Amino acid sequence: MPRQASYGPVAAFYDTYVQADFDVEFFCSRVSCCTGSVLELMAGTGRLSRTLFECNPDLTCVDVSQEMLRVLSGKFVGHRRAPALVCADVRTLPLRGGYELAIIPFNSFAELTSVEEQRQSLMELNRVVVGGGRVICTLHNPEVRRGSLDGQERLLGRYPLGQGRELELLVTGSLDPDAGLARSRQVFRVYDSEGELVDEHLQELRFVLILEESFAELAAHTGFEVVELLGDYNGAPYARETSPFMIWTLEKVRGITGG
Is-contact 173 209, C-beta < 8 A? Predict the structure, then answer.
């Protein structure tokens, strides 16, 4: 069984180059309204987790990378309480269930690159979410996202690492239009205070552009009903030609007991 992409080699850098906060208020509003347990899947280093925990302390964070979870755990050192951390693949969750809300932020579901992997994950979510519970799954909008998958190398940014060191990140995105499979080639370069290259790491990632109708069909087949589809984190309805994202809210309407 293919494994999810591992971010372990870049865990130490991740918070340096990923500083997005455009979705924090959205997820906080959803988690604050939840009176039961919350599950954050593909949580990474906890970009959202600290704030979500303040909104609802009954939080479990899952990620496949032990290195990423180690960074997340460090953010709660000295705190009296912390969320439960589970190192696991989203397709085989070692959880008993009872969650009122599960979220998959930052378009991470797209890293499950086959329909079978996606189905397995939603089946697991159906198992661990209570009847009437909800799942929020965020995806790229294929119509908009494919425009940046042109094979051109781009400088994503330069980021200070302290003691005069700097991280440079170069990204090249490409797309197989027939398969809908995208590849992201990320080159991390670390320079010392004298501008000399002292470290370099190549990260290859794969993700898929999932069509609206395909995801809706998959959700229905795994026991969920679509209750909301937004196109951005300000609450705008999804528009196929212009929305940057597809933000799905699903509700569990029936249990799934078999494969």
Answer: no
Tokens of 182: 């995208």
Same domain flag for 21 and 65 = yes
Nearest C-alpha neighbor of 8 from the set 68, 70, 88: 68
Residues 8, 140: Cα–Cα separation, whole Å: 23
Task: Kindly compute the dihedral angle of the four CA atoms of residues 126, 129, 133, 136, in this order, to the nearest 10 degrees.
Answer: -70
**pLDDT tens-digit series, residues 49-85:** 999 999 999 999 999 999 999 999 999 999 999 999 9
| Residue-range definition of the domain harbouring residue 41 | 8-143+210-252
Residue 9 has a pLDDT of: 83
**245: CATH:** 3.40.50.150
Give the residue from 84, 30, 31 showing the smallest Cα distance to 62.
Answer: 84
Q: What pLDDT score was predicted for residue 6?
A: 64
Q: In what order do the strands lie in the sheet with 165-176?
A: 153-162, 165-176, 181-191, 197-208
| pLDDT of 1 | 41
> CB-based contacts of 31: which residues, under 8 Å, 6+ apart?
38, 52, 55, 56, 59, 101, 103
Distance CA 232, CA 147 (A): 18
